[in-house]
Write a structure and sequence with these properties.
Helices cover about 25% and strands about 20% of the residues. By secondary structure, the chain is an alpha+beta fold. The chain has two domains: about 1-40, no CATH class; about 55-134, no CATH class. The protein has a four-stranded antiparallel beta sheet. The two termini are about 50 Å apart. Keywords: Membrane, Transmembrane, Transmembrane helix.
Length: about 130
């Protein structure tokens, strides 16, 4: 114990509940796993990265451009932003096919409207304030 640093403590997981099954072995037939015990970190204690205001302004301008085109902002953190939107449905052809088939195509349209996929784009700003999409 003297060779371990004082701030690290190890906890035997099997000591908490001796009847618990770990990794498919019973309480008598397993080697106890040791896990490093960590204290919980308060989110307010975590320092935010120091980001250049020019990069933040470039990201805000890019997010505004994408939001004007129908994208919604899912999250923004640091130099990245996640934007999402539901995939579009071509209403002209679906309406035309519904009229031509006497309403039978309406079943397909309803299924497509209910099960629309979500498109996701991640905007990142590099150190030169250039916005990249992925």
């Amino acid at each position: 114990m003297a060779d371990r640093p004082a701030e690290q403590s190890y906890v035997d997981e099997s000591a908490r509940d001796p009847g618990r099954v770990l990794n498919g072995f019973g309480p008598l037939g397993h080697v106890p796993r040791l896990r490093r015990y960590h204290r919980r970190i308060d989110p307010e204690e975590v320092p935010m990265p120091n980001i250049d205001p020019v990069r933040i302004a470039a990201l805000d301008a890019a997010v505004a451009r994408w939001a004007k085109n129908g994208w919604t902002v899912s999250s923004v953190s640091g130099a990245t932003a996640v934007l999402q939107r539901k995939k579009r449905i071509g209403w002209f052809w679906n309406l035309l096919l519904t009229i031509v088939t006497g309403g039978l195509w309406l079943v397909v349209v309803i299924i497509r409207v209910v099960n629309r996929k979500i498109e996701t784009i991640v905007l990142t700003v590099d150190e030169y304030a250039r916005v990249h999409t992925s």
